[in-house]
Design a protein that fits this description.
Distance between the termini: 15 Å
Largest sheet: 8 strands, parallel
Number of strands: 13
CATH superfamily of the largest domain: NAD(P)-binding Rossmann-like Domain
Helix content: 25-40%
Structural class: alpha/beta
Number of helices: 9
CATH topology of the largest domain: Rossmann fold
Order of helices and strands: HEEEEEHEHEHEHEEHEHEHEH
Oligomer: single chain
Strand content: 15-25%
CATH class of the largest domain: Alpha Beta
């Protein structure tokens, strides 16, 4: 297995965001074959996932496979074998965490760039795990964020994330005592938690707020309230996937291709929510970037 360091570099985020935009504009994403993810659960509650994708344009077949188990420490283990469609040869096997981290930061950059106010300067983050850092990287790649507020149910984790943000040298970062405090008046909000219930984010979100909602969503659970989803313009990776996995409220959402290639001059003046469920097309594009040395 190659590239086991799961830290994401800013240059990689910018590069993959560019590849995503290019694939959306060219129609390469539309031409991919991407079945809905398959999940098998055993009697212990351990889940086994498979997320394949094939791209004739990029000449790659991938299949992210993962286990989600219960226990101390990391509960998700994943790998992504990458094959050349021209020969069927295995090019490499990438660490699934690296692929996921980079993909999440890059798609956040793409969506935030289209939806957030051009002068957005305040970012509120709820959650302080690995994905919270990816949210900071993605938003920072496209906006001059000056102030970051972080809330976590574990204050030490929030302080560690703030210290990392401060060390990056581009923004002030503050630990907040509540989700409402972290998000009040924020130009951009990122939620990256495992909550199955709507988070108590601020009621006074500005009209122009953009929310990147990155936690696991199902038809019965989500990080943000149904009221916020109903009042905002929703963005999803794929309408088919979002409706199947997160509910029919997403059936009128903009998918990434419509968002990136369409004309939406009013987006920055109304609430927008990126209700992310994940999509293997983006994993494949990320793998195309990471697997370049092996082609």
């Amino acid at each position: 297995m190659t590239r086991v360091d799961t830290d994401v570099a800013t240059a990689d985020v910018t590069a993959v965001a560019g590849l995503i935009r290019e694939a959306l504009h060219s129609g390469a994403v539309r031409r991919m074959t991407v079945p809905l993810r398959q999940t098998v659960e055993d009697a212990r509650g351990v889940k086994y996932l498979s997320m394949p994708a094939v791209s004739p344009d990029l000449g790659l077949y991938i299949a992210k496979v993962a286990t989600i188990a219960h226990g101390p420490g990391s509960t998700v283990t994943s790998v992504v074998p990458v094959f050349a469609t021209s020969t069927g040869a295995l090019l490499t096997v990438l660490d699934g965490a690296l692929v996921t981290n980079l993909k999440c930061a890059a798609v956040t950059a793409v969506v935030t760039d289209r939806c957030a106010a051009p002068d957005a300067a305040v970012l509120g983050i709820v959650g302080a795990g690995v994905q919270a850092w990816q949210q900071y990287l993605g938003v920072r790649a496209v906006r001059e964020i000056a102030h970051v507020r972080v809330h976590s149910r574990t204050p030490a984790h929030a302080e560690a994330l703030c210290a990392r943000i401060r060390a990056a040298g581009r923004a002030r970062a503050l630990v907040c005592a509540s989700a409402a405090e972290a998000t009040s008046g924020a130009d951009v909000v990122a939620t990256a938690t495992t909550s199955v219930d709507p988070l108590p984010i601020a009621a006074d979100l500005p009209r122009h707020v953009h929310v990147n909602c990155m936690g696991a969503h199902t038809t019965t659970s989500r990080e943000v309230s149904r009221e916020l989803l109903a009042s905002a313009t929703l963005v999803v990776e794929s309408i088919e996937t979002a409706v199947a996995e997160a509910g029919v409220i997403h059936r009128t959402a903009l998918d990434l291709e419509a968002l990136e290639t369409g004309d939406h001059p009013d987006l920055a003046g109304c609430p927008t929510v990126f209700s992310s469920t994940g999509h293997a097309a983006l994993d494949l594009i990320t793998c195309a970037h990471l697997a370049r040395p092996y082609r």
